[in-house]
Amino acid sequence: MQLAGTLEEAGEIIRDSTMFVNESFLIADGKTGKAIVVEKSPERCEVREPEGDRIVCANHFLSPVFQRDARNLAYMEEGTSVVRLARATEWVEAHKGEITPEAAVSYVRDRKVPGVNEPVVGNAAAINMLAATHAVVMDVTDGVMWVSAAPHQLGAFVPFGLDNFEAPEGKPIFPEDPLLNDEEYANYLASLAALESARSQFMAHDLDNAIQDCQNALSLNETDYRAHALMAEIEFARGDAESARAHIAAARALHVAYGHEREALDALSQAIDGQDARE
Questions:
Q1: How far is it, in rounded angstroms, from Cα 215 to Cα 83?
Q2: What pLDDT does residue 177 have?
Q3: Rounded distance between C-alpha atoms, residue 269 and residue 279, angstroms
Q4: Per residue in 206-230, pLDDT tens?
Q5: Structure pTM?
Q6: Which of 12, 64, 56 is nearest to 72 (CA)?
Q7: Is the pLDDT of residue 239 over 80?
Q8: From CA 92, how far away is CA 99, in angstroms rounded?
Q9: How far is Cα 246 from Cα 231, in angstroms, rounded to an integer?
Q10: I need a labelling partner for 245 at 20 to 30 A (CA). Which of 3, 23, 129, 151 fits?
Q11: Dist CA 165 CA 65 (whole Å)
Q12: Within 13 A of 131's CA, how many CA atoms are on the CB side?
């Protein structure tokens, strides 16, 4: 890609490459101010043009030729790309004409999910799901990119020149996310450990310790739907259908990210209903 001099040349390089999975490539030209998305599967390659003065990209394909692509449709149903694309589009529209590098940093740190008023911590449907090793913001017109320090998108964003990768004069370092300055991120990490312990205890049929660990996970991160989903399973195993239903509702209210997780909650809810009918 570094050998391409135009968007067309970059597109041809991608078109001629061999792919084993579906991939989207967002390419921007600082000389012309234009950007495109190249959508490439093992069998096909399509170029998506901007809609007006913007183009937004997540992980699934939008070109008409891929509307019936089985791999693409399955990914849209199971994954989080559709939700993240909707949030990206919403954000771009709300900041139209005001998307500075600093604003773009706030975007890649965005932790909103549908139906939840407050930012969540660690939800895979959020732009910042706390999974990426780092994030990059590029001003291709100015020839500058900002790369985040660890962890994830939370560390300071440090500028580099695209020509020589040295610190460009007059370009600021954007400070670390406030999430790192209080106990919330540390609590998030502790909650993951508690949740993993709860799963292990549950699999070992130690329900008392499982529920204790799961309650600890929720006390550390009350926005984690996964802890509520596991609590629902534990409570059902303990024979407390009412509590299980309450935790299913709580999980759904925090936006369950993946299709298989939603199906598991639906199956659990049906199992509870079936048990009630038999009684």
A1: 28
A2: 96
A3: 16
A4: 999 999 999 999 999 999 999 999 9
A5: 0.92
A6: 64
A7: yes
A8: 8
A9: 10
A10: 129
A11: 38
A12: 8
Extract the tokens encoding 126. Answer: 């959020």
The tokens describing 167, both together, are 């610190």
Q: What percentage of the chain has pLDDT greater than the value 90?
A: 88
Mean residue pLDDT of the chain comes to: 94
**Rounded Cα–Cα distance for residues 111 and 116 (Å):** 10
Q: Which helix (H) or strand (E) holds 148?
A: strand 144-148
* Helix (H), strand (E) at residue 29: strand 23-29
CA distance 103 to 168: 19
Does the pLDDT value for residue 1 go beyond 80?
A: no
DSSP-assigned letters across all residues of 34-57: EEEEEEE-SS-EEEE--BTTB---
Tens digit of each residue's pLDDT (9 = 90 or more) over 104-160: 999 999 999 999 999 999 999 999 999 999 999 999 999 999 999 999 999 999 999
DSSP state of 76: H
Rounded Cα distance between 176 and 174, Å, is: 7
Q: What is the DSSP string of 215-228?
A: HHHHHH-TT-HHHH
Percentages of the chain per state (helix, strand, coil), in multiples of 5: 45, 15, 40
Q: Which amino acid is at 61?
A: F
Q: How far is residue 259's CA from residue 197's CA, in Å, rounded to a whole number?
A: 24
Q: How many angstroms separate the Cα of 161 from the Cα of each of 102, 104, 133, 145?
A: 16, 17, 21, 6
The C-alpha atoms of residue 225 and residue 250 are separated, in whole angstroms, by 7
Rg (CA), the chain: 22
Q: Which of 247, 216, 243, 245 is nearest to 230 (CA)?
A: 247
